[in-house]
Design a protein that fits this description.
The protein is an alpha/beta fold and about 150 residues long. Helix content is about 50%, strand content about 15%. It has five helices and four strands, in the order E-H-E-H-E-E-H-H-H. A four-stranded mixed β-sheet has the order 1-2-4-3. The chain starts with a strand and ends with a helix. The model has no long low-confidence stretch (mean pLDDT about 90).
């Protein structure tokens, strides 16, 4: 699995090696072939708002955006590309206060959520949301147990 991580924010220190391990763990557990490529961008609220407005016509910031290259008009461009994930570090910092967790855990949750979207999971209905939440918590728990202790 090839993962390209672009860090366009400066508020939240990130461990790119750990993020790479998280992505590979989820993809392995979901039986995704090893020959896929993914890109992850860690962005500011302003940048994710711009992307959300430009590509999804929603003029608001969000926590994560996922653009799949497996389905839709770009599916034939390159069969190796799984897709792009854009995560808001600002949202991770703010939501960590609300949910009483760490910004890093929020960030990992958003990455996992985006990956699940790339793999075809949806959260449009209550039932789909429940499936996604269960998987997110499962993978987050595994990731937390494999993180090196400070």
């Amino acid at each position: 699995m090839s993962v390209t991580i672009t860090d366009q924010q400066h508020k939240l220190p990130v461990n790119q090696g750990l993020i790479n391990k998280i992505i590979n763990l989820v993809l392995f557990k979901e039986n995704v072939p090893n020959k896929k490529e993914i890109s992850l961008t860690l962005a500011t609220a302003a940048k994710i708002r711009y992307i959300n407005k430009r590509f999804l016509k929603k003029d608001s910031p969000t926590d994560v955006l996922a653009f799949s290259f497996v389905e839709g008009k770009f599916s034939k461009v390159n069969p190796i590309l799984l897709g792009d994930i854009v995560v808001s570090a600002d949202a991770a910092i703010e939501n960590a206060k609300i949910y009483k967790t760490t910004p890093q855990n929020e960030l990992y949750l958003y990455i996992i959520h985006g990956l699940l979207h790339l793999l075809g999971y949806d959260d449009s209905t209550a039932r789909e949301r429940a499936v996604m939440r269960k998987k997110e918590q499962y993978y987050l728990k595994i990731c937390q147990s494999t993180k090196p202790k400070p």
